[in-house]
Amino acid sequence: MVMEKYIAKPLSFQSLNGISEKTLEIHHGKLYQGYVNKTNEILERLAEADFTSANQIYSGAGELKRQFSFAWNGVVLHEGYFESLGGDGQIKDGNLKKAIEEKFGSIEKWKEDFLASGLAARGWVVLAYDFNSHGLQNYSCDIHNQGGIWGTAPIIVLDVYEHAYFIDFGADRKSYIETYFKNLNWQRLEKKFNKIKVEP
Known about the structure:
By secondary structure, the chain is mainly alpha-helical. It has helices at 21-47, 60-84, 95-104, 107-120, 166-169, 173-182, 186-194; strands at residues 124-130, 135-141, 152-159. It has 7 helices and 3 strands, in the order ααααβββααα.
């Protein structure tokens, strides 16, 4: 498998408003780092795997491939989550805001859709640019490697697994998502969106 050992990305902020340092320490320092570690472990095992016995029922190589998709998506989604945060939540004028308004009618209606998606999902919500339909879409994912759509680029990523909020909010997921909105870094999100080719 052609992929070098992956190095975890550091947080780009020191603290968040309403999400504790303890939550961040566990979420980034242990859970995210754990997905990086498992990704690297699977890569090492894939480099030595016997692919001659691969089949659709069960083989060691096949199971490693399946678990790699789970671990690597865990890395990518967590990085998207942390990259989305660290701001004051103030929405900036720009191409992202305009694209959200064109797709959803207004920022408020996008937030309603995103919030509802977060209350319904078991794992993740992703505002992604879809190269198939040439526009934005909120996608819900129950686990890392199920629910994602081929041909999309994640822009805003929300983790709704309990580890992301239970210390600070208990079972009140709605308050957590509302707090998440207040910590979005719209300047960084705008730059991320502008890197994506959006012309059909």
